[in-house]
Amino acid sequence: MSTSRNHEGRPGRRAVVVAAGAASVAAVLTACGSQKDSGGSDVVEPADDGMDTGGTSLARTADIPEGGGKVFADQGVVVTQPKAGEFKAFSSKCTHQGCTVSSVSGGTIDCPCHDSKFDASTGAVAHGPATRPLPARKITVTGDSIALTP
User: Fold this and answer.
1) Mean pLDDT across the stretch 124-143?
2) Residue ranges of domains in the chain
């Protein structure tokens, strides 16, 4: 007959090992549960500023410099204006190792982690180590507002 307590009334070694293993599994499952990337919110509320474009409001066209751009890390998008009145959008996640790009300058979208650079007009790799372009994102420009299209 097996018991989980020894003759001194204390838990036996097997009971301690089993309990520790169960506690470890429970801790891992709790930590990994349904937790999502904590980089931003799943629900995005558009600004209540009269911009009704059918998507998530990002910015006014005047906020995006000609020949440059702006990174909206919380939305996972970078918007560029390669030429006057021409707006492009790409994922803000670098295709090398998933870092968020940090800036747009000199015609490139720049990743701070390993110095990958992407063409601000096309999203193509301009300088590695990244080997794949930034995926395009859909935006809508209505009047002077830019919205991320669902």
Assistant:
1) 92
2) 1-35, 56-148
Range list of β-strands (E), the chain = 56-60, 69-72, 77-83, 86-91, 103-105, 108-110, 117-119, 125-127, 139-142, 145-148
pTM more than 0.70: no
If you average pLDDT over every residue of the chain, what do you get? 75
3-state secondary structure of 91: strand
Task: Report how far residue 65's alpha carbon sits from residue 81's, in angstroms, rounded to the nearest whole number.
Answer: 6
| Greatest Cα pair distance in the chain | 85
Residue corresponding to tokens 């998530």: 56
Local confidence band at 146 (pLDDT 50, 70, 90 cut-offs): very high
CA dist 126 → 7, 79, 84, 121, 122 (Å): 73, 17, 22, 11, 10
Q: Which residue has the higher pLDDT, 38 or 125?
A: 125
At residue 22, the pLDDT reads 52
Question: Token pair for residue 59?
Answer: 């910015």
Which tokens sit at 13?
Answer: 């070694």
The partner residues of 23 in beta bridges, in order of sequence, read none
Q: Which candidate, 85, 87, 81, places its Cα nearest to that of 107?
A: 81
CATH class label, 56-148:
mainly beta
